[in-house]
Amino acid sequence: MPEQYDVIIIGAGVVGSLVARALSRYQLRLLLLEKHSDVAEGTTKANTAIVHAGYDAKPGSNKARLNVAGNRMYDNLCAELDAEFDRCGTFVVALSEEDLVTLGSLYKRGQQNGAAGLRLFNAEETLRHEPSLTKEARGSLYAASGGIVDPFQLGIGAAESAVINGVELMLETEVTGFLFEHNRITGVTTNRGDYYSRWVVIAAGLWADDLMHKAGLDGFAINPRKGEYFVLDRRSSEVVHTVLFPCPTPVSKGIMVTRTVHNNVLLGPNANTIRDKGDLDVSAAGLDEVWSGALKLIPGLAKRDIIRSFAGLRAAGSCDDFVIEIPGDPAGMVVLAGIESPGLTAAPAIAEEVVEMLREAGLELAPNTHFNPERKAVRRFAVLTRREQEALIATDPRYASVVCRCEMVTEGEIAAACHEVIPARTYDGLKRRTRLGSGRCQGAFDLPLVIGIMARELGISPLEITLKGGHSRFLARGTKEVDA
Amino acid sequence: MRLLEADVLVIGSGPAGLAAAYQARVSGAKRVTIIERNREPGGILPQCIHNGFGLRIFGRDLTGPEYAQRWLYQAQEAGVEIMTRTMVQSITPDLRITASGNGTLVDIKAKALILATGCRERPRGALGIPGARPAGIYTAGTAQRLVNIEGYMPGRRFVILGSGDIGMIMARRLTLEGAQVMAMAEILPYVSGLRRNLVQCVRDFDIPLYTSTTITEIRGRERVESVVMSAVDEHWQPIKGTQRELACDTLLLSAGLLPEIELARLAGVKLDPVTGGAMIDERQATNVPDIYAAGNMVHVYDLVDSVSESALRAGCKAAEACSGHEQPCEPLLPLVAGENVHHVVPQYVHIGAPRELIIELRVKLPLEEPAVVQLTAGDKLITSERLRYARPSEMIALRLRPEQYQQIGQAPCLRAAVVRASQIKTRG
Fold first, then answer.
1. CA distance linking residue A39 with residue B238, whole number of Å
2. What one-character-per-residue DSSP string does A225-256 give?
3. Which residues of A touch B135 (CB under 8 A)?
4. How many CA atoms lie less than 13 Å away from B285 in the CB half-sphere?
5. Using CB atoms, which residue from A284, A397, A479 is nearest to B153?
6. How confident is the model at residue A484, as a pLDDT?
7. What is the ipTM of this complex?
8. Which of B37, B105, B249 sits opposite A390 (nearest CB)?
9. Where in chain B is CATH 2.60.40?
């Protein structure tokens, strides 16, 4: 008799990982499958990192309901998962008379949705909160309940918390198809073998439609929408204190200027529908669009502060709302699809909803009395007090050795991240866990050192260290070695 | 935790830090300590295994490690203390410094501080190259460290963006290590590094060099697979139809150096928006009392000898400052960039007590003909010097002698300019 899970969750992004964690509160055998080399590798790692208040979505929609519900869960969730979260408030800025009308309807919609802490500000009040904002600002919609989060720590934290509570995680494991018995799904086939389960949850983000087709569900498509971004140097106090949106358009919330929880400034995204789900390229035209869009809000931005650009794909579905359902045919499956913005905000509420749907569908949920909600991130030396730093150095002298000068990341943190619940196995994985290489020099100084430290900690050759798994190795060969 | 007191504390042990510390000690500072974040002293020099160092100071054509070793011997003999594997975390304007390294935090109280933190390379993000973000994109200096110190080749087929000195030197080095250098692309119409490197590292090794050309796209999802090269117009905009895809697995960036000013900023040191480095007066002193700056963190030099020379000035003045030597109190006169001058250092000059002054500058545009560098105060020409040519890649130094000070008079500022020699003649 093959191994039998109660639930297999496909996709260890923030949604799948939070679903796995929510289910781990019960006595269930759970398997979380991820095709990438790390968790939180898809849309979770490349978005605007905003916790939305909930005035955008149409009243009555899944988006509206789960946005507001998810938003309320953030303080508690981020405290449990040790992910940085700042309910700093958000502004939608009106730059014209027309925009002021839009603000009015957003305000109304927000109230219908139950979004908390909404206020309409005039130009003067708006500029008092954000003095670098364009003098063209006519007013704003302020949302006290909006905020910013570290999406890497949230995603990784959710997955680690799930693993701490007994979820089995398999990385680099791609679901290739489903196993059926009559019209019920009984498991999945993967590149690493078959796994049997009573229930399967599709939380595959950009790839949700491909899996739905494999399960025999047609009529839904993911149309990836690319957004490009700039990251500016960690001097946000001079630029923006909170989150600034322009007035939204039908396809996008517009190009915004926001502070990140680490006090960088993030500009973007634009919105272009593309076909290729692996296309994360940035284009000259796209970046120009982002820059000029951001200038409309903050005219004083300086290009010399740019330290990085990137692109992320939103998993936009062919219907307007989040798809959250148990299709019935085939049975034994929960579909979570089209989780685009405000998906990050809604994710914890989606996870709770999945639990309730499974309960109603007959899955027996006996509480897991050993459930531990707490998970700790790798401690960041740079933000500790002097006394805490000394204590940490006393436990491991490698905390006194700084490897990344821009972000002050120490060798102790790198070593710790390589031995975490879900270890960092790639440079990017390390970066998301420690902020290594996220500063102004973008890793130019630390890379040669980090390759050596990772090789030692992971017990592999420096030649095997990769940027992001697969064929992304840094080194080709030793010097004096001759290519075959 | 350790507590340390120093008369002169030097941050960085590269060609500036070693020379500054040596000179501070020789000039009478009792306790001189260097803090170095790397495992070994020398800053970037240990990985610069090519020659071309020290001709002016030591009268010998040395490699980087040899040049560092000479200064290291001199500094150690003079009694300089060096703390390696130690990184400064914070500096307050009253010169309290916290550093960490070797398993401990260190608090340091210094009477004078010399910032010799060098420079860093412009990374990809700052260049804004469109395309994918795979492995295989390195700054030339990172590649140099991997090859010369760590003993690894970061790729097999290289394209180099920019024609800075490190990029040209790496083109030769990688070729010698059995790699293929497919192309070097420079967005400017001329090479940005030194002529001797162009000849010895690029032409002598048949490296294809394309000027007025840049990389407009990086391709490859996991590892670099190719780059797209395009010709650019005079506004650096890619010209349609000139794209050319080059297969390669590595892109090296050699597109400019930026002063490393993280610590200077913490200490409240004023920065020059053009050089990106610390603003100084003729003593290498910054706006913060008892903080001096030297070498590439002031402005990026072309030759290592000049880096060390600027540090000798800083070392001497820092030693004087901490021994209670009287500090100049006469007014500061700004020194500004005039015609065809990109930037000029020092940014301020004390004009009271005459002392010899060295003015360093770089031109904006190349003049491949005899030129003249001039220093003026209002309408008055203070001094000038003839040059065979003027190139942005080569720093120009102009010496102002004590007796020339008197001519400055009441001018609001000093101005440096570089003009064609022929222009002077026609002006009569």
1. 39
2. EEEEEEEE-S-GGGT-SSEEEE---SS-S--E
3. 466-468, 472-474
4. 21
5. A479
6. 57
7. 0.93
8. B105
9. 334-427
In sequence order, what are the residues at sequence separation of 6 or more whose Cβ sits closer than 8 angstroms to the Cβ of residue B356? Answer: B399, B400, B401, B402
- Would you say how long chain A is, in residues? 484
CATH of B334-427, one of 2.40.50, 1.10.10, 1.10.3470, 2.60.40: 2.60.40
Task: Please indicate whether, in this complex, the C-beta atoms of B37 and A478 are within 8 angstroms of each other.
Answer: no
CATH topology of domain B123-255: FAD/NAD(P)-binding domain (3.50.50)
CB atoms within 10 A of CB B332: 15
Query: What tokens appear for A428 in the block?
Result: 């990017």
What pLDDT, on the 0 to 100 scale, is given for residue B406? 78
| A267 φ/ψ angles, rounded to the nearest 5 degrees | -115, 135
Helices B15-26, B304-322: inter-axial angle, 10-degree rounding: 40
Residue type, A8: I
Is B123 close to A441, i.e. CB distance below 8 A?
yes
Q: Nearest Cα to B70, choosing from B144, B61, B26?
A: B61
Is A415 touching B (CB cutoff 8 A)?
no
Between β-strands B357-363 and B380-387, what pairing exists: parallel, antiparallel or unpaired? Answer: unpaired
A37 CB near a chain B CB, below 8 Å? no
Beta strands at B157-161 and B180-185: parallel, antiparallel or unpaired? parallel
- Which residue is associated with the tokens 């196995």? A425
Q: CA B26, CA B320: separation in Å to the nearest integer?
A: 11
Q: Is residue A213 annotated as a catalytic residue, yes or no?
A: no
Structure tokens at B57: 């100071």
Superfamily name and number for B2-120+258-326: FAD/NAD(P)-binding domain (3.50.50.60)
Q: What is the pLDDT of residue A299?
A: 96
Q: Is B189 exposed, middle or buried (0-12, 13-18, 19+ CB in 10 A)?
A: exposed
Q: Return the bridge partners of A337, or none.
A: A323
In chain A, which residues have pLDDT < 50? none
Two tokens at B294?
A: 């030297």
Taking alpha carbons only, the member of A203, A179, A204, A202 closest to residue A189 is: A179
Quick one: tokens of B109?
A: 């109280």
Estimate the share of chain A in helix, then strand, then coil, as percent rounded to the nearest 5: 35, 25, 40
Query: Which tens digit of pLDDT belongs to each residue from A55-67?
Result: 999 999 999 999 9
Mean pLDDT of B70-77: 98
**Which residue in the block uniquely carries the two structure tokens 């022929």?**
B422
Q: Which among B37, B103, B221 is the nearest to A402, CB-wise?
A: B37
Q: Which residues are A391's β-sheet partners? A: none
Contacts of A288 (CB under 8 A, 6+ apart): none
Per-residue burial over A7-20, b if 16 or more Cβ lie within 10 Å, else e, is bbbbbbbbbbbbbb
Q: Which of A52, A129, A182, A241 is catalytic?
A: A52
- Which residues of chain B does CATH 3.50.50.60 include? 2-120+258-326, 123-255
The proportion of chain A whose per-residue pLDDT surpasses 70, expressed as a percent, equals 99
Q: What is the pLDDT of residues A92-102, one digit of tens each?
A: 999 999 999 99
- pLDDT of B428 reads 41
Quick check: B135 and A468 CB within 8 A? yes
Which H or E run includes B134? none
> If phi over 0 gives left and psi between -120 and 50 gives alpha, with beta otherwise, what is residue A70?
alpha
